[in-house]
Structures are given as structure tokens and as C-alpha cells.
Amino acid sequence: MGQLAEPHARESRLADVAARTAVDGVAVEDGAGYFGMFSVQPALQGHGKLLAGRKVEFTAHDGKKETLSGKHVVLASGGAGQVYRTTTAPPAATGDGIAMAWRAGCRVANLEFTQFHPTGLHHPQADGFLISEAVRGEGGLLRLPGGERFMPAHDPRAELAPRDIVARAIQAEMSGRGLDCVQLDISHQPAEFLRAHFPTIHARCLALGIDMAAVPIPVAPAAHYTCGGVVADVSGRSDLPGLYAVGEAACTGLHGANRLASNSLLECVVTGRAAARDILLHGAASGPAGGLELAGDAAAVAPPAADLARLRHELRAVMSRDVGVVRSDAGLRRAAATTGALRAEMQARFEREGASLEMLELRNLALVADLIELVDAHGFERVVLVIPAVIDAVREDRALDRMAAKIGRASCR
Questions:
Q1: Under 8 Å between Cβ of 235 and 277
Q2: Is the overall model pTM greater than 0.85, yes or no?
Q3: Rg, Å, the chain Cα set
């Protein structure tokens, strides 16, 4: 915490608060979960929903539902990259924090702004692995299967154009030619050079049977970063007292339609630190006293339904096809038919069948996908703040132009 007074005592106090508070979508991998900057105790790993900003109804992996209370809740749940079929985001990036905050009444912003990295490794076992833009910076050339270059036809800077231009160019070539990927060729560089400059990329490709010193690397655009999220100020404070959002789950105004390099890391560190300071400064705010408050019966969690994996795959395929790198009115209308219906279905099933991890994640994915499509398709692309009640009304009565006027679309241009 650096310059904070009494750093050790205050850090211990904040860690104690974090360890006794849960959020929707805590990442669980190899038995380790993370809440903001602090490790979550194994007993608290699972999913939950936000209650009035400072309480979380929590479904643990041991099959129990509990209500956890704390003076402050920090949403550090990451973005929503898993809404797309091809993504560099980890499996836990299912938009949980964004969806939970929305349901609680928070504003969200810029959800239609998803950054796509132009050169994700295209391989069934790639697991979201990125081929760095530095490969193009060192002379890597983008080619079609026959070996022809195509970037000079899209931008005078060719392979050195900004990543959004390169991603759109690759997508245009893939769509127009019916390709699953294109080729990134840096085989003209010596093997020693590649091992020295790109040791991780070289090793990963080689493990998958791709010798980048001899053959081109298959690449395709991949969803990389959720630029929008829960509206938060520079201290991470959301619309609900006691609820903070930091990192990719938040929209602090730093990112526009296209994230720049490692600004997200800077934002995460700065906003996370500012949120910690704010929590310490307002530690005596009204709310539950220290400790963990448990309420409700220990209810069993429903087993995952057999069709959830299929529905999730279909949603991600639709989003990649129609709400991906290149979008059109027709594509967004097609996506709306899927996202709106699936959102309603998952909410009804959640209330009828009970929760499972798979159910909760798909419910959140469907909501975030519907919000992305709705904002982009119906003329709200320049509305900075998306208000839950207004957007839900739009979904219900389809009076799009009238509703757009009501929330001041013209004033946001």
C-alpha cells in the first residue's frame, strides 16, 4: 500500500475484509480463487448474486447457499471474453461481475467496445494463446494460404497498422474467402533470432507441431479485452454505496473503443490501489460490522443440465459471427433473436431449476451478450451510460427511437 499510514495494520485489515467477502464469478483454478488483490479462502469459492451492494447471496461448491455480508464488496471478476468463441480470456471471464452489478441497478458503459487481438494462435489446443504484435514488428508478414500478402491492400502501413485495423483486415479476408485463419510468416528470420526474441511463442508453437522458423503460424482474431463494464469513478466506486469495481470489470473512462497496449494493467493497479485507500478511509461507514454474517438455509445446488454446454457453444458462435470484429445491421438483428431469447430462458430456468455453476455462468453470458447486441444494434452506440430500467423497457416495447431520445442520445454525440 506504499504511502498509507500504518501500512501493515491497514493492509491486514483490508485483507481481512476481502477474505470475508465474496463476489459473483470468483475465478477458481487448480483450487485457488482470487478476490481482488487477496486470496479467497477455499470455503468461499463459488458463485453468488449481489444483494443491496454489501451482501452477496453465495452458492459454494460444496452445495450450500449462504448470504455473506461485508462493509465493502469489490468486483474484480474480469471481463466477458468468454461470450465469444475465440478469446484470449481465461475460462472464468464470463461477465459475472458486470451482470451482477447490472441486476443490482448499476450503470454500465461501452459494452459494445470489445477489443479483438488480430493474431490469436489458431489451433484446437491453443487455449487463447497470443502471437504478439512484436512478431509483425520484427518483420512478420500476414499471408493468405497461397502465400500472397493482403495487408498492403487494406492500409498503407500494412502489417504495422494498429491492431484494430489489422484485425478487421484479417476478418474481412477470412469472411470473403471462407477461411478459418490466415498465416503469419516470420520464417525468413533465423531460428536463433526467433528463439532469442520470442522464446515463449517459439516453444508454444513447437509444442503444437508448428516450427515458426520453417512454416507460417496460423492466426485469427480473438476477443481480447472488454473495454466497457460497470461504471466506476477513479476510486472504483460504483452507483451502489459500498460496491466497487476494478480492472476489466469496470469502466473508468480510461479506455475508448480500443484499448491501448498495457493501459489496462496501469488502470488495474491505480484503480485497485485507489479503491483500497477509499475502503480504508471509509472503514467506519454504515453497514454490517466486521465478521461474516450467514443467513438462509443450506440448500443443495442443482446439477448442471445436459444442454447447457450446447447452449453456451451456440451463444458464443452467434456472437463471434454477428457481433464480432465486423458487424452489420443484419447480423446484429440475427444475434438479437438469440441473445434476447436465451437471456429470458436462462432467467426462467434459474428461477425454476435452481443454480449450478454452469447455469450461473451461462445466465451471465446471455445477459452481457444481450446488452452488447442491444446497445450496438439499436442506436445507443454513443450513449455513454446505459441505464438498466431504460434498456429493459426498450427490449420490451421496441420503441427504440423514442427511448433513445429519452436518455439523451443526441447529447452524447
A1: yes
A2: no
A3: 22
The strands making up 217-226's β-sheet, listed across from edge to edge, are: 114-121, 217-226, 182-185, 141-143
User: Which residues carry out catalysis?
Assistant: 163
> Which H or E run includes 142?
strand 141-143
Query: CA 282, CA 200: separation in Å to the nearest integer?
Result: 44
Exposed e or buried b per residue across 187-225, where buried means at least 16 C-beta atoms within 10 angstroms of its C-beta? bebeeeebeebbeebbebbeeeebebbeebbbbbbbbbb
Residues of the chain with pLDDT under 50: 1-48, 51-53, 285-300, 379-386, 390-391, 393-413
Percentages of the chain per state (helix, strand, coil), in multiples of 5: 40, 15, 40
Contact 255, 113 (CB under 8 A): yes
> How many degrees, rounded to 5, is the angle at CA 237 between CA 249 and CA 74?
55
User: 111 with 372: CB under 8 angstroms?
Assistant: yes
Per-residue model confidence (pLDDT) at position 189: 96
- Nearest CA among 142, 186, 189 for reference residue 163: 142
Q: Which amino acid is at 405?
A: A
Its sign, for the CA torsion 104, 360, 374, 263, is positive
* CA–CA separation, 82 and 365 (whole Å): 8
The DSSP code for 397 is: H
